[in-house]
């Protein structure tokens, strides 16, 4: 009988694809029935359903042995968890966005990613107030709450529908496997083969 493995997955667009991939990699997972439950025991695996931002925290503190999270969220968290694989889905980019044609100085910038936004400003020697928002970030640029926003772009349809433009790409993102460093040693017999199978399935060698 294998030792329990605790896996953290974020609710939202990564959840279903994450379960499907881990299932293909041999974990006894399935999509849970709709309910208010927040964790499930499936065979030897305990599955935790978290907010995106909380996945690096649960993995870093060792409550979860491993998890899946976007590179954007991982970079914003600053948590030094082991990140062995780029899983290749949920691809998007984190970009500076402004109203089409806006050229004035950026006095205030809004984002769900305040740390990455501040780092970008600092690298360019710009000083702007950074306001943290929680969703529909593009509205901040449209309503004048901010002179620019830092948010995700995938197809660009949200930008086109709102007369906004992508001024600069801060980083590219995709879903990453993250692993607790102590669990990697203590549960090596389970985690190493899992990483190996996921590597074969996703065809990646390392996570840049
Ligand atoms: N339009 C998109 N296309 C592809 N990938 C995306 C897109 N938007 C976000 N992502 C990626 O998927 C991850 C999860 O996005 P999701 O939309 O589920 O989060 P959310 O509901 O906005 O998060 P939360 O409300 O928990 O902050 C993001 O961190 C990013 O890596
Ligand atoms: O370039 P696009 O293909 O339009 O994708 C970009 C949009 O996708 C995400 O929003 P999401 O749909 O997850 O809604 P949210 O703002 O509630 O997170 C992101 O925040 C952008 O608004």
From TrEMBL:
UniProt keyword terms in alphabetical order: Amino-acid biosynthesis, ATP-binding, Cytoplasm, Glycosyltransferase, Histidine biosynthesis, Nucleotide-binding, Transferase
Family designation: Belongs to the ATP phosphoribosyltransferase family. Short subfamily.
Subunit structure: Heteromultimer composed of HisG and HisZ subunits.
Domain ATP phosphoribosyltransferase catalytic: 51-199
Pfam family, one: HisG
Protein name: ATP phosphoribosyltransferase
Superkingdom to which the source organism belongs: Bacteria
Native organism: Deinococcus sonorensis KR-87
GO terms for cellular component: cytoplasm
Gene: hisG
């Amino acid at each position: 009988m294998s030792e329990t493995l605790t896996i953290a997955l974020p609710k939202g667009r990564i959840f279903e694809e994450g379960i499907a991939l881990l299932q293909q990699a041999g974990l006894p997972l399935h999509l849970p029935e709709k309910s208010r439950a927040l964790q499930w025991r499936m065979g030897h695996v305990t599955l935790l359903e978290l907010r995106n931002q909380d996945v690096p925290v649960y993995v870093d503190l060792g409550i979860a042995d491993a998890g899946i999270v976007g590179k954007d969220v991982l970079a914003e968290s600053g948590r030094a968890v082991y990140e062995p694989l780029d899983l290749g889905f949920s691809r998007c980019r984190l970009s500076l966005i402004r109203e089409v044609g806006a050229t004035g100085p950026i006095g205030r910038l809004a984002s769900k990613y305040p740390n990455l936004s501040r780092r970008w400003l600092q690298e360019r020697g710009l000083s702007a107030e950074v306001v943290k928002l929680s969703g529909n970030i593009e509205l901040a640029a449209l309503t004048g709450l901010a002179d620019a926003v830092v948010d995700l772009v995938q197809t660009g349809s949200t930008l086109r529908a709102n007369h906004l433009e992508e001024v600069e790409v801060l980083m590219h993102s995709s879903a990453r496997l993250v692993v607790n460093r102590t669990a990697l040693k203590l549960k090596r017999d389970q985690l190493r083969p899992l990483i190996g199978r996921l590597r074969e399935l996703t065809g990646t060698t390392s996570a840049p």
